[in-house]
């Protein structure tokens, strides 16, 4: 428009200049006609300028709207035009600016709500840009993966070591973040999977996409399901065991009574037959009793009483377990003892429940070493214990040389009926889990240093 106005003005002036020159020919002979012609030409020139200005006025409003759109001043409005012919155009422009202003306010409110929602949600959310680099992570994702300044980097940068983790993370947290990042990076679009980290925590992860300015962008959502799955497993276990215990106990009691009655008939048989008869009845009774004890071990988890918390010396409890286990370890050539033992104040624990749980852990460690030695055709090994004060928590660790968890996560071992040991029942570690959870403890069963397996328990400090 800036160039068009002078061009049109020059064009109108160029049309009138020859007419002005022709009008000068009337000056010598007809001066009145000359004056009239000049007046008409000046009026025509003024009218031409006026028409040019009116013709370019819509372009002026268009330029003003363009400036407002570029500066995103959607709250501004165009002034009323001098000509009534432009009222419709100006009203249309103002209506468009008002609509954009309302849309911008709505988008801003939605974006603010989305930002607050992402920060408040316990689910981890990672959003990628058009090139697959991270553009947004909420607080839950940053804590879960331990990423340090992730914006602009692909998720694979944390799996190949090209990017760093947040400061203050220990080696286990870095390993968890690296493994989760690798699993999330390989997650196909539109698919949801159950993932597990090195500590065995389980997560539901899904990859989706949305369209931004016509192009697809991906996002990841990760939600931890460990507690929910454990609660579901526990409820299923309790229902199943109660049904089994009811049926088996009724059968054991009835058959036991019948077997006791059958022994009265021994005297009515010949001596050779009476001996065999009594032996068979006793064997069946023994098997009947074993079946009752078998079910009792399962129901022990369901009927576990609430812990009676009293000040308990953890070291004294562990020392008793070491004395009980020292003989069987000596026969196997397994070194058993303390590796570190800090002076710890008594903790509020149920000594009997904790002793049973720790005895189960040490027993599992010894059996893991036996299994590893049988596979290697070797002997020896170690089970060492560590008791350490860590500020607001107390850590008790049982470390063994069985190294049976190097190939995968350990969390399935806490699942009811899951076992890796031949002849195992899959209830030992579930009992341990119940005891620790009822005491408010956190725990971790995972591979430690090369060739080692660690069971770490963190008690709340006194």
Task: State the gist of this model.
52% of the residues lie in helices and 17% in strands.
Account of the 3D structure:
With 462 residues, the chain is an alpha+beta fold. 52% of the residues lie in helices and 17% in strands. The chain contains ten helices and twelve strands. The protein has a five-stranded antiparallel sheet. A five-stranded mixed sheet has the order 7-9-10-12-11, covered by helices on one side. A hairpin with a 5-residue loop joins β11 and β12. α8 runs parallel beside α9. The longest helix has 41 residues. The protein starts with a helix and ends with a strand. The model has no long low-confidence stretch (mean pLDDT 79). It comes from Telluria antibiotica. Keywords: ATP-binding, Kinase, Nucleotide-binding, Phosphoprotein, Transferase, Two-component regulatory system.
Average pLDDT works out at 79
The percent range for helix content is 40-55%
Task: Count all strands and give the number.
Answer: 12
Number of helices: 10
Tell me the overall shape.
Answer: elongated
Low-confidence stretches: none
Strand order, largest beta sheet: 2-1-5-4-3
Strand content: 15-25%
Q: Which structural class should the secondary elements be placed in?
A: alpha+beta
Order of helices and strands: HHHEEHHEEEHHEHEEHEEHEE
Global Rg: 43 Å
Q: How far apart lie the N and C ends?
A: 81 Å
Characterize the biggest β-sheet: 5 strands, antiparallel
EC number: 2.7.13.3
Protein name: histidine kinase
Organism: Telluria antibiotica
Catalytic activity: ATP + protein L-histidine = ADP + protein N-phospho-L-histidine
